């Protein structure tokens, strides 16, 4: 198994990390990646609180459920790949930054998604899906690069991931472009969610990826901290300050969370 060099970022084959590597911890790039999700989580929590305070609990729950699945699943897709195949070379970093751009686009799509659920008649998740397209261009590239470096069953596993992610994303694009009512959109999204969850089971049915148990545990722990923290702040601010005032506080809130996370990164 290969390990990223600490002295150079030259291209390295993605043949898989050692799942028993000593001292494996979250990298600065992974922590930076988490910061992009802080924005999406905060926006989702804010709109959930605002709709709830306005008496639209059903719309708030529907929007929050859809958005949080999209946000968390995007994070999970990258984190498990990174645990198994992170090379930390320049190409890996560049592709990951493309994925970060996709997360920001996804966050920009959260307000119109909530608004369409509240006001109707059609569900507007086009910007969220566009963000996923950008993210998954990077994700599929990672998987294809891993397929090139791996052999045997692991090679087939990485190809299944690449094909599965590409196929389901085509379905999501069709879903986003087809005008449909909120009810129809929710009904159709259920089998798409099931397919999303089934892809890792299908891809790894013969050979699992060499993910690192301690690394994954740390990644989930850090993400839970920032998700809970931003979720609490994003929920309390709009309720405490009113619907309009909540939007005014978002910039300051995000800057606070970003600064706190940067301090933790430097401290590592």
Number of strands: 0
Structural class: mainly alpha
The tally of domains stands at: 1
Poorly predicted regions: 1-7, 242-257, 259-268
Distinct helical segment count: 10
Radius of gyration: 19 Å
Largest β-sheet summary: none
Anisotropy-based shape? globular
Give helix % range.
over 70%
Strand content: under 5%
- State the end-to-end CA separation: 25 Å
Run of helices and strands: HHHHHHHHHH
Mean pLDDT: 84
Characterization of this structure:
This protein has helices at residues 28-53, 57-85, 90-108, 110-119, 126-149, 152-177, 182-203, 213-241, 243-248, 250-267. The chain is mainly α and 268 residues long. The protein has one domain (28-267). Helix 1 (28-53) packs parallel to helix 4 (110-119), helix 2 (57-85) packs parallel to helix 5 and helix 5 packs antiparallel against helix 6 (152-177). The longest helix is centred in the N-terminal third of the chain and has 29 residues, at 57-85. 37% of the residues are buried.
């Amino acid at each position: 198994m290969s390990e990223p060099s600490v002295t150079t970022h030259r291209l390295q084959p993605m043949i898989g990390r050692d799942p028993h590597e000593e001292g494996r911890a979250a990298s600065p790039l992974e922590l930076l990646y988490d910061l992009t999700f802080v924005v999406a989580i905060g926006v989702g929590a804010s709109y959930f609180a605002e709709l709830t305070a306005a008496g639209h609990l059903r719309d708030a729950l529907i929007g929050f459920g859809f958005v949080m699945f999209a946000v968390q699943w995007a994070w999970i897709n990258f984190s498990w790949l990174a645990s198994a195949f992170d090379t930390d070379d320049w190409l890996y970093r560049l592709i990951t930054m493309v994925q970060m751009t996709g997360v920001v686009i996804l966050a920009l799509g959260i307000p119109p998604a909530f608004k369409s659920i509240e006001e109707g008649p059609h569900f507007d998740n086009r910007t969220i899906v566009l963000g996923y397209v950008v993210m998954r261009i990077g994700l599929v590239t990672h998987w294809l690069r891993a397929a090139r470096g791996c052999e045997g069953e692991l090679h087939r596993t990485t190809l299944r991931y690449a094909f599965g992610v590409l196929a389901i994303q085509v379905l999501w694009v069709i879903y986003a472009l087809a005008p449909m009512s909120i009810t129809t959109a929710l009904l159709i999204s259920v089998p798409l969610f099931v397919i999303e969850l089934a892809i890792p089971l299908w891809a790894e049915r013969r050979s699992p990826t060499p993910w690192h148990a301690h690394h994954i545990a740390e990644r989930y722990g850090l993400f839970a901290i920032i998700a809970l923290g931003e979720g609490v702040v994003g929920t309390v601010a709009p309720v405490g300050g009113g619907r309009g005032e909540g939007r005014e506080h978002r910039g300051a809130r995000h800057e606070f969370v970003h600064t706190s996370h940067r301090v933790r990164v430097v401290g590592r």
